From TrEMBL:
One of its GO terms (molecular function) is transmembrane transporter activity. Residues 288-405, 673-786 form the ABC3 transporter permease C-terminal domain. It comes from Marivirga sericea. This is ABC-type transport system, involved in lipoprotein release, permease component. Residues 21-234, 438-637 form the MacB-like periplasmic core domain. It is a multi-pass membrane protein. It holds the Pfam family FtsX. Keywords: Cell membrane, Lipoprotein, Membrane, Transmembrane, Transmembrane helix. Coiled coil: none annotated.
Length: 793
């Protein structure tokens, strides 16, 4: 019997190829969407899930008071390591980590340039106790006890020393950058599993202290982090210990550092990582919803077409029932036929999944791959196929199997009653389909509008044709000044400036300044930007009052927000007013308008600009109509004259600004693709349904033509029903779209107002698409010769 059912199913597929193509292709798109999203979620949650006792490993974060909110920074003061060891017995292992980033590497005698290494870190032996690495050479317990020692991954060891044996590699000296010498004390295997700890060279942590001497509690950098392993069931005790450490060691002058907290290792991937890829749970949840909705739209297509074309199977049902088939047997037969279609859809989904991954290659995280035949993937696809079988197969199977044999054999199935529940459900399913599609259209158009707003908004300064490059942390102001002079003589360069960081940056440095009010010293917290005298001029920041500062550490410039926060009155009134900063008097010499030094997620912060010789950043203004590639090449050569062993490269400020919104660009592209799929599937389903409906009404249309109806009358007759469905879809889509967009836009301090035009345009697009499909079929039917249609009547 099973063999017979399969034969019948195959024959039906051959007999109605268009209908089954729509089924297979639609379900393949839905299954592909769900599968790729599942793989992505599985991939994101797999990071660092393999470490032994991973549930006892935490990152220590610092809570920072930014004035109006408390933020969490993954950075910690460097002395915290010793304090945790001495003060908190519930901590079993401490592992400080300093991310040194990209460094050039040479042999110890400086005779060989061994290339650039992207991921260098400073750690101590605790790092290898905490995280699982297989040791190939050296001794894990004391390899990094002394300063100026290094442990390499096998990848780095082969890169630096070629085919030398691991024992020969141990004891060799390497030179990192210009100044850091390290003896190789160990080699570990490369990570084969997904991890955010992508470091390949591990220099002893004590080298950082010796070289940089940053042994103070007021220094905080996200590059310097702390990981700990707790004794079992000791999280609360450790939190109490961290509060005690903060109270004991962090002085009142550093009250912006409000405390320390613990973040589970499993959550690190979703907050701040070392490989530039941060997972986003909100995005993953959104993708999961999108994938599910696309699958549901595909299932709706299937149900609509199957129930609409039930008449084609009615005679088969009547004959089988007359020959003794039970309803249970008929349901089993139709479910088997449905599952056969689902199997074809799964095979198609395997191919489509690879196409989707190639299309989204730039948006997907590095290391992501499908591996379709892994056991968890097979289990997921089987689960989805059973879900699709239940959703798509149960209702049509029950509808078709309940037909009366007498009515079926007399071809009375499919004739509309005054109220046909199946027809009513099909109309509502179309409404749901296009409702989803309209939501997607509204969201995509609104996100595009917001992104255009962000990128085109006036920042208050010039961002075009400005490039910048980082300088070494151990570089002196004199050396950077020499670099500035070298860059100024490069053809095509208009201006050069030294600063602590670029004008729009994710970094935030704050300072507490005091001013006298009614004889009392009142303190306010300001963002602080440090630079040389040409920084604001280079970016063409206009003054509201006063002048730019000169080579004086006692002069500052305030923005308008700082002016209001301090309460100085007008810009002119503020000029010459003193402020107290760390016991020194600063004189306000200039006021500028509020410029955006951070992303549009937040309001412009009250900011002070001050002269400083601490510079880690060189800003360059290029002349107009310059040959950019040639000029960048000349700039790189000038940079290499001063820092020959550094591996930095120039970046454009406008690209940096755009990078603040890279997640939004990614979301827009994903939603655009999802919208295209939703519209395509909805249109595909509507195409099949209208095609069948029109074929059922050919006689009616022919009779109307004979009685004098024009083509326009027939088009209006058929179209108005579907136009009404589109209006209902549009009305149902308004609130979900508004809810999502309101939630998304709330992330931005500067945002568009929700324009009604986007909603109307989205509804118009759906209505136009629907009418195009309906009118196409109706027009062909209206032009049929009534004599051909009615010749058998």
């Amino acid at each position: 019997m099973l063999k017979n059912y399969i034969k019948i199913a195959v024959r039906n597929i051959k007999r109605y190829p268009l209908r089954h193509f729509i089924h297979v292709f639609g379900l393949a798109i839905g299954i592909t969407s769900c599968f790729v999203v599942f793989k992505l979620i599985n991939f994101e949650y797999s990071f660092d899930s393999f470490h032994q006792d991973g549930d006892q490993i935490y990152r220590v974060n610092t809570m920072v008071d930014y004035g109006r909110m408390i933020s969490i920074s993954p950075g910690t003061p460097q002395p915290l390591n010793e304090a945790l060891k001495n003060e908190i017995p519930s901590i079993e292992i401490t592992a400080p980590l300093y991310d040194a980033g990209k460094l050039t590497v040479r042999s110890g005698d400086e005779s060989k340039n061994l290339g650039v290494t992207d991921h260098v870190s400073y750690v101590d032996n605790g790092y290898f106790e905490l995280f699982n690495y297989k040791w190939l050479a050296g001794e894990a317990s004391y390899a990094l006890d002394e300063p100026n020692t290094v442990v390499l991954t096998l990848k780095s060891a082969k890169k630096y020393f070629g085919n030398q044996s691991l024992n020969q590699i141990i004891g060799n000296e390497l030179l990192y950058g210009d100044t850091i010498r390290a003896i190789v004390k160990g080699v570990v295997a490369n990570h084969t599993k997904t991890s955010d700890f992508v470091f390949t060279d591990f220099i002893s942590y004590s080298t950082v202290f010796n070289k940089q001497g940053e042994d103070n509690w007021s220094s905080l950098s996200t590059l310097s982090q702390m990981f700990v392993k707790l004794l079992p069931q000791q999280k609360e005790a450790t939190l109490d210990g961290l509060a005690a450490v903060h109270k004991k060691y962090v002085s009142p002058e550093n009250d912006w550092m409000t405390g320390f907290d613990l973040e589970p290792l499993q959550e690190v991937h979703f907050s701040s990582t070392f490989n530039g890829h941060v997972g986003n749970k909100k995005t993953l949840n959104g993708l999961m919803i999108i994938g599910f909705l696309i699958l549901i739209i595909a299932c709706v297509n299937f149900i609509n077409l199957e129930t609409a074309q039930a008449q084609l199977k009615s005679k088969e049902v009547g004959i089988r029932k007359s020959l003794g088939s039970s309803r249970k047997q008929l349901i089993g037969q139709f479910l088997l036929a449905t599952y056969l279609i689902i199997l074809f859809a799964i095979i198609s989904a395997i191919l489509l999944s690879h196409v989707v991954v190639i299309y989204f290659e730039n948006l997907l995280p590095s290391g992501f791959h499908l591996n379709f035949f892994a056991w968890e993937n097979i289990a997921f696809v089987l689960t989805v196929s059973l879900f699709v079988l239940f959703v798509c197969g149960i209702y049509p199977a029950f509808v078709i199997s309940k037909y009366s044999p007498v009515k079926a054999l007399k071809s009375k199935i499919g004739k509309r009653k005054k109220f046909d529940i199946n027809y009513f459900l099909r109309k509502n399913l179309i409404v749901v389909q296009f409702g989803f599609s309209i939501v997607f259209i509204i969201v995509v158009l609104a996100i595009k509008s917001q992104m255009n707003f962000l990128l085109n908004k006036d920042l208050g300064y010039e961002k075009e044709a400005i490039v910048y490059i980082d300088t070494p942390r151990n570089g002196s102001f004199a050396k950077n000044s020499t670099l500035k002079n070298e860059l100024l003589i490069v053809p095509g360069v208009d201006a050069v400036s030294l600063s602590f960081d670029e004008l729009m940056s994710g970094s935030l440095f704050t300072a507490t300044v005091g001013h006298e009010t009614s004889g009392e010293l009142e303190e306010v917290e300001l963002q602080m930007k440090m630079s040389d005298t040409s920084y604001l001029r280079l970016h063409e920041v206009p003054l509201l009052a006063g002048r730019y500062f000169r080579n004086s550490k006692n002069e500052i410039i305030l923005n308008n927000a700082a002016l209001k926060k301090i309460g100085f009155g007008s810009p002119a009134e503020a000029i010459g007013k003193p402020l107290n900063y760390r016991g020194s008097e600063l004189i306000v010499v200039g006021i500028i308008d509020d410029i955006h030094t951070r992303s549009m997620y937040e309001a412009v912060k009250p900011t002070m600009f001050t002269f400083s010789e601490t510079s880690f950043n060189v800003n360059i203004k290029l002349a107009s109509e310059v040959n950019i590639p040639a000029t960048l090449d000349d700039l790189q050569k000038s940079y290499k004259k001063i820092y020959p062993n550094e591996a930095q490269s120039f970046q454009f400020l406008d690209e940096t600004v755009a990078n603040f919104y890279k997640n939004e660009f990614r979301l827009r592209k994903i939603l655009f693709f999802a919208t295209a799929l939703a519209i395509f599937l909805s249109a595909l389903g509507l195409f099949g349904l209208v095609s069948f409906t029109i074929s059922q009404r050919l006689k009616e249309i022919s009779i109307r033509k004979i009685l004098g109806a024009s083509i326009a009358d027939i088009l209006l007759l058929v179209s108005k029903e579907y136009a009404l469905l589109m209006v209902v879809s549009f009305l149902l889509a308004i609130y979900p779209a508004w809810y999502f967009l309101n939630d998304w836009l709330s992330n931005f301090y500067y945002r568009i107002s929700m324009p009604i035009g986007i909603y109307l345009l989205s509804g118009t697009i759906a209505l136009f698409l629907c009418l195009c499909i309906v009118i196409l079929h109706s027009f062909n039917a209206a032009n049929r010769n009534p004599a051909e249609v009615l010749k058998d009547e």
